[in-house]
Design goal:
By secondary structure, the protein is α/β, with parallel strands linked by helices. It has one domain: 3-Layer(aba) Sandwich (Rossmann fold), CATH 3.40.50.150. Helices cover 43% and strands 22% of the residues. Helix 1 runs parallel beside helix 2 and helix 1 packs across helix 3 (76-88).
């Protein structure tokens, strides 16, 4: 089983706060993707690598009445927070489980499986996709969203941002993962045995707000791993983080998410 320490980004409560920002930025495109994939009331769904549960909360609402959602992650601290939030929101059709993405949740149980920003953290994304396929009913749907850091940009260009992007990609490589996995997704999904593959691409950008804060927040949340891996020292990282926040606060500058590849496919 993978461990929380395998991931480059900080877990627990601090990591959960970053995920709230990620989810506010990504919510419109993710929900639109799920609806295009055919998510409807009554479905039984799995959200793999659910993190803080934000996508699972929306999925649980979208499958009402009659549907239910299982959400799995390896970070028990995040899962405990997610369970409490689900209870506060009255989502009694949503269950959070500690689960490794490489292990099928339940054989051929689900109508739809979703995974956002999971495969780019794994050394063996193909194995995870095969596990997800085993959890799907015949004819079920997989929905995958993941990043391509080669498409991550700011305007104007910014040295601190370039350093951040290089460090993020380097940390991923040290963990055996791939921060540029996006273009590989259709082939990986096909190799896992899925058919009827549909690809779209989404990217969020703006001159203010959460989308600009994601970069300094992420740099803060990978800083410990960067230092442990010997890729930079704390003094340099403090400068990079301060410069990234300064860029985010500068009127008229543009910040973006990485380019996000979206794949919908069918389990034959």
């Amino acid at each position: 089983m993978a461990s929380v320490s395998h991931y480059a980004i900080r877990g627990g409560v601090p990591g959960r706060e970053r995920l709230r920002v990620v989810s506010r930025v990504m919510r419109p495109s993710t929900n639109a993707l799920l609806l295009r994939a055919g998510l409807v009331p009554g479905m039984i769904c799995l959200d793999a690598g659910c993190g803080g549960g934000d996508v699972a909360f929306d999925m649980a609402r979208l499958v009402l009445p009659g549907g239910r959602v299982v959400a799995g992650d390896i970070d028990e601290a995040k899962l405990e927070l997610a369970r409490a939030e689900a209870a506060e929101q009255g989502l009694d059709n949503l269950e959070f489980r500690r689960a490794d993405a490489l292990t099928a949740q339940s054989a051929a149980l689900f109508d739809l499986v979703h995974a956002r920003f999971l495969l780019s953290h794994l050394a063996d994304p193909l194995a995870a996709l095969k596990s997800m396929r085993s959890a799907l009913k015949p004819g079920g749907t997989i929905v995958v969203e993941d990043v391509d850091f080669t498409g991550h940009f700011t305007y104007p260009g910014d040295p601190a941002f370039e350093r951040y992007r290089d460090l993020y990609r380097a940390v991923a490589r040290r963990k055996g993962a791939d921060a540029d996995i996006g273009p590989r997704l259709p082939a990986l999904v096909a190799d896992a045995g899925f058919t009827d593959i549909v690809l779209t691409i989404a990217q969020h950008a703006g001159t203010e707000g959460d989308v600009k804060l994601l970069t300094p927040l992420t740099m803060e949340n990978i800083a410990d791993t960067v230092v442990r891996e010997g890729l930079a020292d704390r003094e340099e990282l403090d400068r990079v983080i301060a410069d990234l926040y300064a860029f985010a606060r500068t009127p008229g500058t543009i910040g973006s998410t990485p380019r996000v590849f979206e794949v919908i496919a069918r389990n034959p």
